[in-house]
């Protein structure tokens, strides 16, 4: 058990991208209707729809760029630690050593299930993150999701638990 690499699932990513494009189009068409067709123009809702449409276009471009990258490893587990590339916060944190992890647990946040890696000294890892994200990681731990990975949450938890049992206690 030297290293386990779990790749991103492009099918899941494509579904997320498709849903994002649909929402973007709905926002842009709503803004167009509010500005060009409606008898009474309501500026704030139209501006809000335009802004949401613009954000949707921005995030869709980022999603396409991520899908076209040569690097497909979404999560790497090895004797050193865990490297999760599924969120911008996790990419900023980088490799989390097994010795820095206090506990591994399943939990829910915002209606989605995550694996939370409670860190012993989170400030060693989170100094470059926004304050709100820092507080969330201090409170709950670093969230790892299987949402875009080519595995399900329970199998992912089993992999992480196995590595944590083998290498976490050795390094403490």
Automatic annotation (TrEMBL):
Record keywords, A-Z? Membrane, Transmembrane, Transmembrane helix
State the InterPro entries in the record. Answer: STM3941-like
Q: What is the lineage of its organism?
A: Bacteria, Pseudomonadati, Bacteroidota, Sphingobacteriia, Sphingobacteriales
Q: List all membrane-crossing ranges.
A: 14-35, 41-64
Q: Which organism is it from?
A: Pedobacter caeni
The highest taxon in the source lineage is Bacteria
Protein name per Swiss-Prot or TrEMBL: Uncharacterized protein
